[in-house]
Each structure stands twice: as structure tokens, then as C-alpha cells.
Automatic annotation (TrEMBL):
Residues 350-496 form the COR domain. Residues 64-115 are annotated as: Disordered. It comes from the Eukaryota. PANTHER family: C-TERMINAL OF ROC (COR) DOMAIN-CONTAINING PROTEIN, PROTEIN TORNADO 1. The lineage of its organism: Eukaryota, Metazoa, Spiralia, Lophotrochozoa, Mollusca. Residues 72-94 have a biased composition (Basic and acidic residues). Pfam families: COR-A, Roc. Signal peptide: none annotated. InterPro entries: COR-A, P-loop_NTPase, WH-like_DNA-bd_sf. This is COR domain-containing protein. It comes from Mytilus coruscus.
């Protein structure tokens, strides 16, 4: 990422491993795709707003000669025409008044002056305000510096007020007026009109972050997958082995594929560019050629016959330490052109929303990482922004959430706050999930408990949050924990305040877990395995599943005889739950490659059926699909014999229609009905 942002090759060896996620920004010129640094607090929203107001002022002069009647039609069109797309705005301010754009919009036919109706509507709608704004503007211009200072002090006041709700209306009003006024200055260069704003998010590669990355992945992005090799290891690890670069690349393709959509041209979005680094390690051209060939072969194998390969747009072989900027310029251009080719590029957005978003960005830039929703509702209603309905403010916040500007959920326990700085949230996550902790915490019992069992104590949370004391996470602990619960990064045990972090729990093999419950001497009835076999299982999906079971059932307890202590039967890929209070009947929930599998253990040998468990699982997967916008997740129902390995050996209903079948895993005959009966699927075999 740093080379894309013009850092010199000499700086590469000094780069530190990404801890969590790093966020940078730049500008992209929408005409030629060229990138430019974005060091000022300026951004495209600000520019757009300035342009709008500039146009508004020009029109004030024109309107002075028009009659009010002439403008009425625009007023009546208000609702459907209040949206302004970035492109339209940019175009409409082009000196040459692009007629094509105007004509694309049927509403513009009534527009005699040849400008887009959208802009006019905005003007007539705000007629009461804009004269006052103009006056203020004139006053402001000579003394820019003073204004900026005043404006920051207003925001600081807001910060104080916001910390100690109830919010002071007068301060909010004053602050919002001041921020809005500051955008009425239009001393920017013309070429700025052609710039679009671009965020760059650098995701850490370590596994620890896979549970938190989901919060920030989105379909509105171009992805670069950077690796220095693409090799398959022979080690058969359960789950994803992040040391295996082929599995690692496959993992990220899957994670991104969760957000797929098809473009008009029939391609799969979001686009992925694979970048293979360390070309300098191969000195001879023939070596390089060999390496590149092997890399491409392996990539083909990783993506072999899978839908997800449709995301791949290009592969680059580069050296971060030796290549000149020309190589990176090429990648920058490709990113620009892929972005501009995406469906949402230049999508319409109501102008009021842009204004409101500008205040949100300004607050963030002034170190207000989180705000009460109440305060933001007041800002939105300010006359210069004028979003009068609470519902519309919420929609606007939802829009800002979707494009990654804020983190906001209109849901119970979450709706009262809006996180204005996603980076702040990442830092809070990082405090909890990163292994980079000081030695004292590392040797503490609380940390050991977290690593062994996933149990997160309240005192450990406070200690971990204090790693970044200046970010004041402790003050917003309640909301932060609610956000983490929303993503099942942490989860409450049933009927308990104890918090668990499924992503931090250690792994344990299935046979080891089973041994804890059955020593082979007692009768022990096991059902067959009931499996949901996914085309691809999103990385954090099992976390959600296990979190759901944790909330529904009591987690079974294991006695560790060696250390004479109890622990909950929760591991990274396995959870064991008590189905009743006797503890004799247990539900085992497991994750395998692209599979979620259930088995019931019953010490009473009661031979019951468990249809209810399957129905609940189906319903929950459906809920997850909707809740996390993973609409493309699909699965088939399969079965595995009771002592079989569901990771390698599964049967569909269609494969079980014969009365019995040969099980290749056990080299013996199994009765088909034994696989389906415990789950009440016998009818389906007939
Ligand atoms: N020789 C050589 N070294 C490189 C190249 N790219 C990166 N490095 C070095 O490899 C190491 C890792 O680079 P990073 O940029 O931190 O890699 P990363 O993938 O971002 O790693 P995480 O942030 O830990 O996920 C650093 O010491 C870099 O200096 C390259 O093209 N050639
Ligand atoms: Mg990095």
C-alpha cells in the first residue's frame, strides 16, 4: 500500500507489520484515473458542496430577475428530484454545460436555463436560507483563518457536550452553522472538480483478525491480494492454515466472494487484483519466468472450477524494494479504471446527505470518534442541512455506514451511538484481539484464561483497552462491547454476564474433545452427522453459528483431570452443549472445510430424533444471511455415518436412496436409514 502511496522503495525495509487495519486516503482524477495525494482535510464531499454553493450563488443572481412563479415547478418536483449524483454535480459545473447529461434526466426538460433540475431544486428548496448564507460568506472571506479557529473550538465544545449528554442545542446549532459556513468558501482550483475521494484499507494478514475484518469488508471496493508466494503445504491442519499461502489466498477470495454481484457486463464484482511481491529474490530472467509460471499454475489450482475465480482481473509480479514508481503507477491506473467500471460509481445521493456527511467527517477530523445519535439528529435538522425527519437522518446514517464513513446500526442497544471514525473502532478491536500485548498482561491469569478458554473477563477488557488510553475506549466500553456482540466477536453465555471471544479460543481435535466425555467404557449413543455443506463458508460464519448456540444452550463442562479444574467445552472449531439440564444429552457443533456439522451424544441411549435442531439451524443460517448481507450463501444438506469424518465423507439424500451402501471410510456396509433417521429424514428416502 505504501508504494502505491508514493513511498520510496528505500522505505520498504522499515515498514512494520500491519497491526489490524490501516486506513489511508488519496484522490483519483475521474477523467484520467490518475492518483494524487490527499494530505489536506479536504475531500470530494467538501468540494462538491462548495461547487453546489458556488452554483447556488450564481443562480441567486439569475433568480433575482425571474418571477417566483417560474420556479414553482421545481418546488413541486422536490421529492423525486432532490438527488444529485457526484458525476452530475461535476458535470453541471463544467463551464461547457454538458447537454447530454442534462438530457439523460427527463425532469430536466422543464428546465429552461439548461442546467440540471437537481441543482435548481436544491436552490428553490433552500431559498430561505441561501441569501443569509451568501451574506455570511461575504463576511467570512477576508478572515479565513479566524473562521477555522472558531470552527474547531465549536467542535471541541461539541466534544465536551457530547461526552456528557444531554446535548446542548445552542452549541450544536452554532457549531453546525460554522462548519457549513466554512464550506461556502470556494477558493479551490478548478481541476479539483475532477477528483474523487478514495480510501485505502490495509488489512493485516494474521489470522487473529479474521473475525474483525468482516466488519469492514464491503462490496463497494476493489481488492488487492498481496502475497510473496503461492505454495501448497502438505500439512493437514483443521481449518485454515495461514502459513500455507495457497490456503491463505483461497481464504481471502472466499471472504471477498461473500459480497459478490454481477455487473451489467456479466462480470463478477468486487474485482480482485493479485499482487505477487519479492520479484527481486529471483535474479535471473529465466528464474523469474519459472516462478511466475508456477505461481499462475498454483493460482489456477486454488481457484480451480470455482465461481470465485470470476473476481480475478489481473496478476502483477513486483518488487517493492527495487521496482520504480512506473510499476506502481500501472497498478494505480488499473485500480482507478476498475473502480470507475463498478455499478455504484457515481450513484445518486441526496444533496442534504452530502452536507450532513460533511459535518460527520469534520467531527471525525477533529477527534470526535463517536457521537450520540441524539446529537447528530439535532445537527441534521439544522436549517443549513435541513433533514427534518428522524427517519431520513437514520437512512442517511445507514448510507454513510454502507459506504464505510461511519459505523451505525439502527438496532436495539446500538442505535443510540454512531461511530464516526471506523479507525477508532478498529483500534478498539485490536486492543482485544491482537497478540501484541505487554508482558505483564501476557503473564496474567486473565490472559491465559482467554487464550485457553475464550473467556474474557471484565478486568481484562479494561486492561486491554488501556493499551491505548488516549483513545478513551473505556469511556465507551458499553457501546464498543455491543458492536462486538453485533458481530459475534464477543458473546454472552446463556443466563450469564460472562463474555466469550470465540475467535480467541484455542483449537482441539474432535477425537480429543470426544475423549473428554466418553472413555469407551460407558454406553454412549451417537447420532449420525447432520451437515450443511456450503459452496463456500464465510470466514466468520462459524463464529456466528457457535455464538448463537452459546446464547441458546448451556455449554457443557469438561473436567480437566490433569489440572483438576473445570472448563467449558468450547474450541475454535467445536462446541459441546447440554440439550437438557441432566447433561446426559449433548449437542456437538463442529466446523469443517466449508461445512457445519451437528451430532448428538446421548448417554441414555434413548434413540430420539432431533428434527427441531435442524429446523433451528436452517432458520438461523437464514437470519445470518440477512443480517450480514451474505445473500449468496448457499448449502446442501448431507449426512455422515456416526463414526465417520464429516470433513471427507458426506452423503446427500439422493446418494442414500438404496437400502444400504458401501462406506469407503470404514470399508463396510451401512444402512442408509441410520444416517437420516436421527434427523427425521427417513420419509425423504422413500
Ligand atoms: N526483498 C523484498 N522484500 C520485501 C518486498 N515486499 C516487502 N518486503 C519485506 O517483507 C517484509 C513484510 O512486508 P509487509 O509490507 O510488512 O508485508 P505485509 O504483507 O503487509 O505483512 P502484514 O502487515 O504482517 O500482514 C518487510 O520486511 C518488507 O521490507 C519485496 O518486494 N522484496
Ligand atoms: Mg501490512
Amino acid at each position: 500500500m505504501r508504494r502505491l502511496l508514493w513511498h520510496e522503495k528505500e522505505e520498504v525495509p522499515l515498514i512494520q507489520s500491519t497491526d489490524g487495519i490501516e486506513v489511508e486516503k488519496c484522490n483519483i482524477n475521474i477523467v484520467d484515473g490518475k492518483w494524487s495525494p490527499c494530505n489536506k482535510t479536504d475531500d470530494d464531499v467538501r468540494r462538491l458542496i462548495r461547487q453546489v454553493f458556488k452554483k447556488k450563488m450564481l443562480n441567486v443572481e439569475c433568480e433575482a430577475t425571474e418571477t417566483v412563479d417560474d420556479q414553482e415547478p421545481f418546488r413541486s418536483n422536490e421529492d423525486e428530484s432532490r438527488s444529485v449524483s457526484d458525476k452530475e454535480l461535476l458535470k453541471s459545473f463544467d463551464e461547457s454545460d454538458d447537454i447530454d447529461i442534462v438530457n439523460e434526466d427527463p425532469k430536466s426538460e422543464s428546465n429552461e436555463s439548461g442546467d440540471t433540475v437537481d441543482i435548481h431544486t436544491f436552490i428553490s428548496d433552500n431559498r430561505d436560507n441561501h441569501v443569509a448564507v451568501e451574506t455570511d460568506l461575504n463576511q467570512m472571506q477576508p478572515d479565513n483563518f479566524k473562521l477555522e479557529n472558531m470552527h474547531d473550538s465549536k467542535i471541541n465544545n461539541f466534544t465536551k457536550e457530547n461526552e456528557s449528554d444531554p446535548v446542548n442545542d445552542e452549541n450544536i446549532n452554532e457549531m453546525t452553522s460554522t462548519i457549513m459556513k466554512s464550506y461556502l468558501q470556494f477558493r479551490e482550483k478548478e481541476e479539483d472538480d475532477m477528483l474523487a475521494f478514495c480510501w485505502l484499507w490495509d488489512f493485516a494478514g494474521q489470522r487473529d483478525f479474521y473475525a474483525t475484518h468482516q466488519v469492514f469488508l464491503s462490496k463497494h471496493a476493489v481488492f488487492l491480494l498481496v502475497t510473496d508466494s503461492l505454495e501448497f503445504t502438505t500439512a493437514e491442519n483443521q481449518g485454515i492454515d495461514f502459513e500455507d499461502s495457497a490456503q491463505y489466498v483461497s481464504f481471502w477470495f472466499d471472504a471477498i466472494h461473500c459480497y459478490w454481484s454481477t455487473t451489467k457486463k456479466g462480470r463478477l464484482d468486487p474485482p480482485i487484483i493479485v499482487v505477487c511481491t519479492n520479484e527481486d529474490q529471483f535474479k535471473e530472467p529465466s528464474e523469474r519466468e519459472k516462478r511466475q509460471k508456477k505461481f499462475k499454475e498454483n493460482l489456477r489450482e486454488v481457484l480451480n472450477k470455482q465461481e470465485k475465480k470470476g473476481h480475478l482481473r489481473n496478476i502483477y509480479f513486483i518488487s517493492n524494494t527495487e521496482d520504480s514508481d512506473i510499476v506502481f503507477e500501472e497498478i494505480r491506473k488499473e485500480i482507478s479504471s476498475l473502480a470507475m467500471d463498478m455499478e455504484d460509481w457515481g450513484k445518486d445521493c441526496p444533496l442534504k446527505w452530502l452536507l450532513f456527511q460533511q459535518v460527520l467527517l469534520k467531527l471525525k477530523d477533529n477527534n470526535v470518534p463517536i457521537s450520540s445519535t441524539k446529537a447528530l439528529l439535532k445537527i441534521a435538522k439544522h436549517k443549513d442541512i435541513n433533514i427534518s425527519e428522524d427517519n431520513e437522518v437514520k437512512q442517511c446514517l445507514q448510507y454513510c455506514h454502507d459506504i464505510g464513513t461511519v459505523v451505525y446500526f439502527d438496532e436495539e442497544n446500538l442505535a443510540d451511538h454512531v461511530i464516526l471514525d471506523p479507525k477508532w473502532l478498529i483500534n478498539a478491536f485490536r486492543c482485544l484481539v491482537s497478540d501484541k500485548i505487554d508482558n505483564v498482561i501476557e503473564v496474567s491469569d486473565d490472559w491465559q484464561t482467554l487464550k485457553d478458554t475464550g473467556l474474557l473477563t471484565d478486568s481484562l477488557i479494561s486492561r486491554l483497552f488501556r493499551k491505548e488510553s488516549e483513545l478513551k475506549f473505556d469511556e465507551h466500553k458499553t457501546h464498543l462491547l455491543e458492536v462486538m456482540k453485533r458481530f459475534d466477536i464477543i458473546v454472552n453465555l446463556k443466563n450469564s454476564n460472562a463474555l466469550y471471544m470465540p475467535c480467541m479460543i484455542k483449537s482441539c481435535s474432535f477425537s480429543e474433545v470426544q475423549k473428554q466425555f466418553c472413555d469407551g467404557n460407558q454406553p454412549f449413543y451417537k447420532t449420525s452427522w447432520f451437515c450443511l455443506e456450503f459452496k463456500f463458508l464465510p470466514p466468520a460464519f462459524f463464529n456466528h453459528i457457535i455464538a448463537w448456540y452459546i446464547k441458546q444452550y448451556f455449554v457443557s463442562v469438561i473436567i480437566d483431570r490433569d489440572i483438576r479444574s473445570k472448563r467449558n467445552a468450547l474450541y475454535r472449531h467445536i462446541g459441546v452443549f447440554d440439550l437438557d439440564s441432566s447433561g446426559c444429552e449433548k449437542l456437538v457443533v463442529c466446523e469443517g472445510p466449508n461445512t457445519i456439522a451437528l451430532q448428538v451424544w446421548d448417554l441414555r441411549m434413548s434413540n430420539k430424533t432431533y428434527e427441531g435442531l435442524t429446523v433451528h439451524l436452517f432458520q438461523f443460517v437464514e437470519t445470518l444471511r440477512n443480517r450480514y448481507s451474505l445473500h449468496h450463501i448457499s448449502y446442501t444438506t448431507t449426512f455422515t455415518c456416526k463414526d465417520g469424518d464429516f470433513a471427507i465423507n458426506r452423503k446427500t439424500i439422493e446418494e442414500l436412496i438404496t437400502k444400504d451402501y458401501m462406506c469407503y471410510e470404514h470399508n463396510t456396509i451401512h444402512v442408509s436409514d441410520d444416517l437420516v433417521k436421527p434427523w427425521n429424514y427417513s420419509e425423504k428416502l422413500k
